[in-house]
Amino acid sequence: MTLNHNDIGTLIALVNQDRLVEAEQRARALLGRFPGEGMLWKILGVTLGRQGKDALQAMRKTAELMPKDPEAHGNLGAVLHDQRRWEEALLSLHRAIQLQPNDVDALVNAADALRELGRASEAVPLYQRALQINPRQVAAQNDLGNALLVLGQNEEAVDCYRRALRIKPDDAKIRFNLGNALRLAGQYEEALIVSQQAIALDPALGAAHNNAGLSLVGLGRHEEAITSFRRALAAGPVSVDMLSNLGNTLRDMGERREAADLYRQAIALDPSHVESHCNLGNMLFQMRRIEESAASYRQALALKPDHAPAHVSLAIVLRQQRRPIEAEASCQSALAIDPQFAEALHVQGELRADRGEFADAETLFRRAIANKPEYPAAYTSIATHRKMSPEDKDWLQGAQGLLAKRLPLDQEIGLCFSLGKYFDDVGEYDKAFPQYAKANELTKRYGAIYDGDKLTARVNEIIGRFDASVVQQRLSGASDSALPVLIVGMPRSGTSLTEQILASHPSVHGAGEVTYWNAAYNAYRGRDQIPGMAQQYLQRLTAGSAAAQRIVDKMPANFMHAGLIHMVFPRARIIHVTRNPLDTCLSIYFQNFFNMGPHGNDLASLAHYYREYRRVTDHWRSVLPAAALLEVPYESLVKDQELWTRRMLDFIALPWDPACLDFYKTERTVLTASRWQVRQRIHGASAGRWRHYEKFVGPLKTALGDALKEAP
Asked: All domains of the chain, ordered by start, with CATH?
């Protein structure tokens, strides 16, 4: 029994009349009688496909029974293409093209499969062949543009999308593709216009809103970009890229908390997306949540061990945690992946500077700039680690050129501080102060607000709680250890210099800034965990230290807690370094601190903070035993280093050692902002520095008020 050709004709007629359900039923009935007829399977596959049903089995059977039919292989390849089964699709489509080299649909589908498989360079000739056969094949023009974008041939992609739009001008997706290619080609103005045209054609096209946002970022119009990114997310579907783009722009505008929330949403959407973990880590680091940021970078590296940026970011965290050997290893891991990676070279330079190897550090900073000319952080680091001179014209031109561009907020702030330092170093003070002022005003955009009333209330509480009778008491669990030496005072008052001098003594270890006493005081207020204070602090103080008779903790803000420290460690010694209030406040104002509170960016707030500092330290002077507290005037220390060094060593009960006079030769890691200064011979140039800025400091003088009395 053979199949009647009239039956085939009837089926084809039903398909052509779009009577697909009837055609499917008749085809299935005939296949019950003629299961080996390839043409019946072919017609069944077509009817299923046009109805949106699964046609894969029918198409496979067709190709099996009709191995010489190019259309059978092309149809099977098309179904596999639509199911994104690219490897299988490519096999069928290549067979179709072998049988029929001019099959445009097969050529385009095969090219699509190659592009999706990461073989864009092989896809391009197939698209071009299809277009030679049919220049008005819109899908081929559009997809050729997509392949060229993958290959970085942005201008050529633009031409493809323009040709596609001449054929189909009202296609919103093609217009979006053109806008995207224009943006990647750096043509932000036209990219924005074309993206807006795509939105007009399809307001729900989230990708077009997203591309408009990226174009606005390229134009430096960040506020408008944020609006576009929010519209993209509202239009949907929400993607990791959309969340990240909004997060990155908010980050650059100083909106750290919302940026971090968006990065968390991106991670929830796709936990395997490495960049999201890195973005969150960067944000947490900027928010001073160091341990959490490290966890984010480690998660990124668990997902992708060869991700160089994550290695560098982890190195930055390890450096901040005073783990320089591990930080160096992370940099080396990044450079093993990319030997020219500017960020890794930069962090290596910072690690060298921490050790006082400033010439090597600058070599690394300049290598970073050579590899990545528009890299503001390396410019900032060069200025930080030496005295600038008029011969540094290349640096000045580079820094000013970068500032002429629209930079992320943190980079703009860093460069403004660096330009301020440059002009200060070369004696152009009228140019220096405006740069410092601009840097501080920009920093206020992060939104942190100084609460002067809160600080005053806390100082009132401390003074009220720790009167002379209370301070003389020993807390439960107090220690008789004489190991701790605490250097306190305002930041930029000489605390790092004092630590460096003492740490040059063979019996002294400099532990840097140990974070402990603020949290300890909060616990003390709640009468909680008091007995363990001494042990907990000693564990932190001695971490990483060699055997030493004295260990220095130079956390400046411990001036708030001198009374509590004395009650826990009656034999500990507290050295209070003082400095002219104007010099102190200006030096803070001129410094881009990593962990300074918002008072550091406003002269009036700085003056208020300084007055509260003076009020609480005046109190300690009146209630602490004379043997517990030594006050060291910075101006006197730099004028007669040996005299004051001997006094400090006597105070902490150690013998004289001449190595303390050569403190600048001491090899140790220093992470504070003064790490360059403490490696220089002592001089008095910083004493009275405020006089260079006398025309600018009138409001500061007024705000400091009585705090200026008795100032050197």
From this structure: 170-236 (1.25.40.10), 283-408 (1.25.40.10), 466-708 (3.40.50.300)
